[in-house]
Amino acid sequence: MVGLSAYMFYEFLVTSLLSNYSYLCQPVDYSNSPLAMRMARVCWWFFFSKVIELSDTLFFILRKKNNQITFLHVYHHGTMIFNWWSGIKYVAGGQSFFNGMGNSFVHIIMYSYYALAAIGPHMQKYLWWKRYLTSLQLVQFVIFLMHTGHNLLAECDFPNSMNMLLFGYCVTLVILFSNFYYQSYLKNKKKQKV
Description:
Blueprint: H1 2-18, H2 34-62, H3 71-90, H4 96-119, H5 130-153, H6 160-193
Helix pairs in contact: 1-2, 1-4, 2-3, 3-6, 4-5, 5-6
Enzyme class: transferase
Protein name: Elongation of very long chain fatty acids protein
GO molecular function: fatty acid elongase activity
């Protein structure tokens, strides 16, 4: 997944730069130009990566790893498939590239962490930065929220229905990830002080 995330980040970045995409407001290019097709293709790969991530959830269920199955995990992975399916069906490219690019970058770091953790318990001393990974995910969702909020208010030739869907979705992710951060890193510290 590190390799796929790195490939997608590279493709989102390079294709957006070659196409002179605006990072604030980018309409969808529905043409068959090579760059429009390249952007649509990386959006498809991003959707496919979400299918892989949901499969991971199914494997947790089949292996009865109930401690790894949380509402946040199921909600996030289950809804990402719907969101990106509708994204590639109706607005492949356009400003949705921004979220795919940002999420791919975060996933390079996140899956690197998981790869190190999978090596074994002796790697634990190198995994002190999990808390910061959660912070990075939260920052990502806040950036997406601001980006989408800007596009709801600006004159941008990108469907407001998609902007509203993404805005609402990002609100839920900020709430859920903030709760996870609080439960995982702050609540226990408060208990230890008492």
